[in-house]
Design a protein that fits this description.
Two copies of one chain form a homodimer. Chain A has helices spanning 60-63, 139-151, 170-179, 191-199, 215-222, 237-245, 274-277, 294-306, 323-330; strands spanning 8-16, 29-37, 47-55, 81-91, 101-107, 111-114, 120-122, 159-162, 183-188, 205-208, 227-231, 246-254, 281-284, 314-318, 338-342. With 346 residues, the first copy, chain A, is of the alpha/beta class.
Chain lengths: 346, 346
């Protein structure tokens, strides 16, 4: 049902209730229905979006905490915000026109009136699934690309290990590493995910970390000569085992530490002395410093998608009302592939 | 008593007895007296050295372990080897001439016949104390310079924290950081060392980590706005507290982790998640990759020494027979300043 401009319509929203400690729960969010005037106020440069897909990303946990440094906290009583794909319904900004598809920061609601200085990209290539702009062609894709190519500086033949390897970022790092001529192993938390890594994403090897008695033994089995690059998504015990298996001058781009975000007491990592023994570089990064590379990234990745050389697996939750469960599920490893919430089909 | 060329003379040595686990003890070494022919064999390119000063360096602990990756292990039954200052008695290598002073890798003994492909530098500037070539003008000096200027990339006005700050490397990092226009705080393990930091080396502030109830509180007191650069020499609990206090885009050059070398079970570091929250770079390094900068380093540091703008404190043990105690003392924080063993006065 298309909404006409200016009409007041119902606007389903996912509200953030209050700051979270420990694991987030569905009840930390509330699905409500408000109304919105489908109009950009006279003279305003705001943009009115109809949201199509919303992205569930691990970093969103940090926005649920109070006074967090790296990202602004969510506002209790207001909708969550995050990356999404949308169609422009009306625009006070001449750079975005009615009917265009965009991706960038939007609200967890059916319609969002967003400020013109929000991060928003026009979608120039709509001959791929639009939901890919929450993943492969959006922030996670850029994160995989920047962390691997810019932070880790891979060389052909190097040995690469990726944790949370079937996730939104990991599955891409693995494929980028294969394209770069590296040997690639991933870890994930179920047989289904491990099968995906080996059979769909072309990893050389993979293991289910939940079924390994000793992570150090698992890594030694996969990397008898050690690891050059560890693309770090999880932290904790796995990082500790990896440190024992790094090669000289190894690099660890730290994309995330999802195993640690919800713990009151973080796991102790005991093998840091290998940083000096092996002259390891550990580099925390976020994608924000790399968005200027987005056109270069698209030029690299779009042909590979069209030739079927890069594939992408998404886990789609249908309906905004299923958004809280999808987001909470991320921290329990429930998703298989990139977790997306489908708000509306176009 | 000068030894004539070709003469067989007594040669006191410090032998490495066997591989060490846990803290090294004096009894892991033995002081013995052998004899040596003061002559370079006919046709050999070896160099015969009379050792003057030997350097006690924290990394030497790793050479006492078996099958260690980063450095070759000491050979049981043979003298320890390490950095030292010596005079050339005879030379089969045309680049080094009889009577010249040199610094580089030598043996823990009175006289050493060393291979021509050992790392050895001619001492061109002898108008400073020769023992400085085990410290300020040698490997520790280059380590301080490379780790601070090359690895940490300091900017004027940045906040710098240094652990083991009165040691061979730390006292120099602090002075280099002051010369670079940084705010500098150091930690050390006694009142005497803290006084040195504040009153002799010009640190802006300093604290005795043994007297602080809570290292996090101590760091917050010294760095209310956080730390840009942590020059890491110790590891463990102090690193954990530092991670809580790092600023965005902070850098941690890892020069060493002396608190961890002798522990069977390393301390767990629990705050690594700040690497991603604050996009921290942690970089293990050794000086070996940076020796090509040595001439540049000398050009920088020699004028400062002559103008009294860089000072250096040494802790000298007199006599090779006191070498084992001096080396073991490093790991108990007994030394005040750079630990040197005086083998002979020239």
């Amino acid at each position: 049902m298309a909404a006409a401009s200016g009409e007041a319509v119902k606007n389903k929203q996912v509200l953030f209730k209050d700051y979270v400690t420990g694991f987030p729960k569905e009840s930390d969010m509330a699905v409500v229905e408000s109304t919105i005037q489908l109009k950009v106020p006279e003279g305003s440069s705001e943009i009115l979006l109809k949201n199509l897909y919303l992205s569930c990303d691990p970093y969103m946990r940090s926005r649920m905490s109070k006074n967090f440094t790296a990202h602004p906290s969510f506002v209790p009583g207001s909708p969550l915000t995050g990356f999404g794909v949308a169609r422009v319904l009306e625009s006070g900004n001449p750079n975005f026109k009615k009917g265009e598809f965009v991706w960038g920061l939007t609200g967890w609601e059916e319609y969002s009136l967003i400020s013109s200085n929000q991060m928003l990209f026009k979608i120039e290539h709509a001959d791929v699934p639009l939901s890919y702009y929450t993943g492969l062609l959006g922030m996670p894709g850029m994160t995989a690309y920047a962390g691997f190519h810019e932070v880790a500086s891979p060389k052909k033949g190097e040995k690469v290990f990726i944790s949370a390897a079937s996730g939104a970022v990991g599955q891409l790092v693995g494929q980028f590493a294969k394209l770069a001529g590296c040997y690639v192993v991933g870890s994930a938390g179920s047989k289904e995910k491990v099968d995906l890594l080996k059979n769909k994403f072309g990893f050389d090897d993979a293991f289910n970390y939940k079924e390994e008695q000793d992570l150090n033994v698992a890594l030694k089995r996969c990397f008898p000569d050690g690891i050059d690059i560890y693309y770090e998504n999880v932290g904790g015990k796995l990082l500790d085992a990896v440190l024992l298996n790094m090669k000289m001058n190894g690099r660890i781009p730290v994309c995330g530490m999802i195993s640690q975000y919800n713990l009151d007491q973080h796991e102790g990592v005991t093998n840091l002395v290998h940083i000096i023994y092996k002259q390891i570089r550990i580099q925390g990064f976020t994608v924000n410093e790399y968005f200027q590379l987005y056109p270069k990234f698209l030029g690299f990745v779009l042909p590979h998608i069209k030739e079927g050389k890069i594939v992408y697996v998404e886990d789609k939750a249908e309906g905004l009302e299923n958004g809280p469960a999808a987001l909470v599920g991320l921290y329990n490893g429930c998703n298989v592939g990139k977790q997306v919430v489908v708000v509306a089909h176009e």
